[in-house]
Amino acid sequence: MQTTQPPMRPARAAPTDDDIRDVIAAEKHRDGPLLPILHGLQARFDHIPDTALPLIAEALNLTRAEVHGVVSFYHDFRSAPAGRHVLKLCRAEACQSVGADATIQQVLAHFGLDAFGTTQDGRLTIEPVYCLGLCACGPAAMIDGKVLGRADAPRITAALEVQA
Amino acid sequence: MTHPLTIYVSLDSAAKALGADDIARALQDRAAARGIDIRLVRTGSRGMIWLEPLVEISRDGGPRIAHGPVTADQIDALLDGTAPNLGPTEDIPFLARQTRLTFARCGITDPLSMDDYIAHGGLTGLRRALEMTAAEIVEETKTSGLRGRGGAGFPTGIKWDTVRQAQADQKYIVCNADEGDSGTFADRMIMEGDPLSLIEGMAIAGLATHATKGFVYIRSEYPDAIAVMDRAIRIAREHGLLGHSLLGSSHAFDMEVRVGAGAYVCGEETSLLNSLEGKRGVVRAKPPLPALEGAFGKPTVVNNVLSLATIPVIFEKGAQHYADFGLGRSRGTMPIQIAGNVRHGGLFETAFGLPLGDLVNDIGGGTASGRPVKAVQVGGPLGAYFAPHQFDTPFGYEDFDQAGGLIGHAGITVFDDTADMGTLARFAMEFCAVESCGKCTPCRIGAVRGVETIDRIRAGDTAATDLLTDLCDTMTSGSLCALGGFTPYPVLSALRLFPQDFGATREAAE
């Protein structure tokens, strides 16, 4: 959502059209293949490259506008790669009841961020999430797809240091 | 098959989030280093989240003895049998007081072992359904009184009957596993802890309606559940629970997992269907009902995970056995999720009818912080807040409706007296604004205006209270789906019960 392109990030080779076509071909046989294709692209390139939109549109006989409409509807799909690590912090009610708001502020401050986004060095993207299903052991967090419960600020920063 | 030392550790996300993987690894490593022969079984969660990581140990085929929450320094003592314990797991009051039908196997079996599944009653229901006609299966489902566990509470058998009678060359079973409501995690637990029951339930639904293809639409926020379901489907195919010939019969049914993409509104069935088809997750107007024109325009059953996962036990034990539990028109059991600021949080499956206060104070043990309970929200972000003076409300669809709320997916989120209900009401509107699909105006614009109006009230403009009530009326009556239609529940209940938290006087709120 508020993710910004990290300026310090080392350049990564841009996905070629053939790379993108490979991903499309792997999912195209499904009923309703668009979301599986988009998940496939994001899994491989960590974002949905702009150059993929016309290729998807052509493969699925859709307009580019339709594909753009779908990509932009869903929170998960990024237009640029995230930081090297992605930390998701739950903002939903059950986590609020055990102090998630304060935890979020502490964690953002710890990494020098005013709001959700990516750190200057491109190391970490912090995103809000609305419920990880860990509502009896909140505040809940997820680091690179791994769940973390009773995630107060020290526990989160310690877990991230292990990841570095 | 008994083993001198069998150790059970949950692989449920909540257990993992509290360190179960590390404990399991440490147990294995230490046992290997000390030359102790153990059998380590990763199960689903027993649902006692405050005891996770929970380690259960059975020696020489004896009862499973519970230890928890286990810490890394207890590994040797666990192996030696000298660690402090909680006695037999089944005797822990939180568990002993439950009636587990949907969750009968969860926490006990290895979720990915077909042998375990069958040894604990699995496939009995499907075998029985295979002996029945589609009409008989539907009738049995109606007799059970099972109602949609996703929140709307629509009778499952009636929905199936509509799909059964529809004429089409292809029909679908879609499982709604887009469990986005804060305070709920039962779908996740069953998918991680007993995924084969969901698959069996979907296969029975297929028999009942002549549908041969199923989809489980799981939210992307549940990577562990997605992984377990994927593996379970492969195992089910290998054992003939899915495929061209269900358990050797002439019936075919297969299914696949589909992953959501972070849109809360896709938990609404028509928006889920659009998403499944590869479109924006925008709500569709009804009619046509999905039962007649659902996925890809074909007749489709859309059921919640819990509804479908409850089907096997209904067919295993008989519809009447299930219907004998409950109160009024709320039949059977409900897996209630006790969450938030609560001492004993977790999953408590019980017959409908228990008073709300018993669930919060008696079973949940009050707040985790030890402070007084201020309010509980029942049914997720679109559910109403209840104050302690309403704690005698029995847990049932109609009873909650009469009390101005809803049970939804049966999540109870507890707040202590530090909660600011004005902030929570504002959050409800803000959430609706962020997650609105944009199709209908009352939700898309109403939610934004709702945030602004609550800000005005909290800034001292008491006249804005009437405006908020009026706006909520419009959202309730004019929204296409529950997102815009039910957001007024938390907002107005918070305003009615806690006007002081809005900076308004009691008179102004009433």
TrEMBL record, chain A:
[2Fe-2S] cluster binds at residues 90, 95, 131, 135. CDD domains: TRX_Fd_NuoE_FDH_gamma (cd03081). Its cofactor is [2Fe-2S] cluster. InterPro entries: NADP_DH_HndA-like, NuoE-like, NuoE_N, Thioredoxin-like_sf. Gene3D superfamilies: Glutaredoxin, NADH-quinone oxidoreductase subunit E. Keywords: 2Fe-2S, Iron, Iron-sulfur, Metal-binding. Binds 1 [2Fe-2S] cluster. GO terms for molecular function: 2 iron, 2 sulfur cluster binding; metal ion binding; oxidoreductase activity. SUPFAM superfamilies: Thioredoxin-like. The keyword Metal-binding applies. PANTHER family: BIFURCATING [FEFE] HYDROGENASE GAMMA SUBUNIT, NADH-QUINONE OXIDOREDUCTASE, E SUBUNIT. Belongs to the complex I 24 kDa subunit family. This is Formate dehydrogenase gamma subunit. The lineage of its organism: Bacteria, Pseudomonadati, Pseudomonadota, Alphaproteobacteria, Rhodobacterales.
From TrEMBL, chain B:
Residues 424-467 form the NADH-ubiquinone oxidoreductase 51kDa subunit iron-sulphur binding domain. It holds the Pfam family Complex1_51K. The keyword rRNA processing does not apply. GO terms for molecular function: 4 iron, 4 sulfur cluster binding; FMN binding; metal ion binding; NADH dehydrogenase (ubiquinone) activity. Keywords: 4Fe-4S, Iron, Iron-sulfur, Metal-binding. The keyword 4Fe-4S applies. Its cofactor is [4Fe-4S] cluster; FMN. It comes from the Bacteria. Belongs to the complex I 51 kDa subunit family. This is Formate dehydrogenase beta subunit. It comes from Pseudooceanicola nitratireducens.
